[in-house]
Amino acid sequence: MSEIEKQIASIDEKIEIISPLKIDLISQTFLCNFNDIISVIRVDVDVPNWLKKRRVSEWKILKFLETEIRNQNILYHDFDNGILIREFSEGKKISNSEIKKKESLVSLGKELKKIHDINIENTQVNNFKIAIENYRDILKNKIKNDWYLNHGFKIYDSITYRNESLIFSHNDLNSENVLWNKKYFFIDWEYASANSPYFDLASIVSSYNLNDKEIGFLLNGYKKDFQLEAEKLEIWTKFIYFLDYIWRACLIETSKHSEITINLESSRKNLDKMR
């Protein structure tokens, strides 16, 4: 019996795995039947302690979101065995060519604004700065001799929030986490926090490689009177590319992964294009 099978076998409730959905560096996700409800089960694999803490934070956020957003219902969790089961939300990924259409970007902007408008006062939602300082602490002995880490943190430190109000930010809006079913919705909330609205906007810009005209469509849906600072958006977008490298470096430092299994060299080559 594999380690994944052992983890699933620890669930003392009715569960049947239907098919695999996703395999990434720290988890595997399956479509399943859980107590006669079509669901999604995520099983962690070799997750370091700093990510285990994020799992606890994610669960709190998802419970909070149950009252704010549909399709986030948690059915089961077991932090010790790295298991989370949520009700399945049917949706499809949208191709780059489809999402770049005006009506599609306007619709995406509207749904993003709904997320950013969620009131997080008096909640346990953390500040994004805490995550960055955690990464910096994990990598404190590596930063000086790694240009990519050093430059990435310098970019973040150059960002000024200029007294802007922090909003509830998803913080991981890559194309895997943006789905469509009559409207756009978002999944995988483990990195959500209080953050600048520019972070999610920049994530969409970088994920779909939007040009200035397409950014305008997105903002028309997001908030027509949003005073976009183009330079600020550009800095956040650049930082997001480096943040992926920082995250991967943290995983190497705190788990069994190596530069080869993480494919860190490929990340470096992508960042070299930005020098």
In short:
The protein is an alpha+beta fold and 275 residues long. Helices cover 46% and strands 18% of the residues.
Biggest pleated-sheet summary: 5 strands, antiparallel
How many helices does DSSP assign?
11
Q: What do we call the CATH homologous superfamily of the largest domain? A: Aminoglycoside phosphotransferase (APH), C-terminal lobe
Overall geometry: globular
Give the key terms.
about 280 residues, alpha+beta, Phosphorylase Kinase, domain 1, Aminoglycoside 3'-phosphotransferase, Chain: A, domain 2, 2 domains, five-stranded antiparallel beta sheet, three-stranded antiparallel beta sheet, about 20% strand, globular
Explain this structure.
The structure is a single chain. 46% of the residues lie in helices and 18% in strands. The strands form three sheets. Strands 1-2-3-5-4 form a five-stranded antiparallel sheet, sandwiched between helices. A three-stranded antiparallel sheet has the order 6-8-9. A two-stranded antiparallel sheet has the order 7-10. It starts with a helix and ends with a helix. With 275 residues, the protein is an alpha+beta fold. Helix 7 crosses helix 9 and helix 9 packs antiparallel against helix 11 (264-272). The protein folds into two domains: 3-87, Phosphorylase Kinase, domain 1 (2-Layer Sandwich), CATH 3.30.200; 92-272, Aminoglycoside phosphotransferase (APH), C-terminal lobe (Aminoglycoside 3'-phosphotransferase, Chain: A, domain 2), CATH 3.90.1200.10.
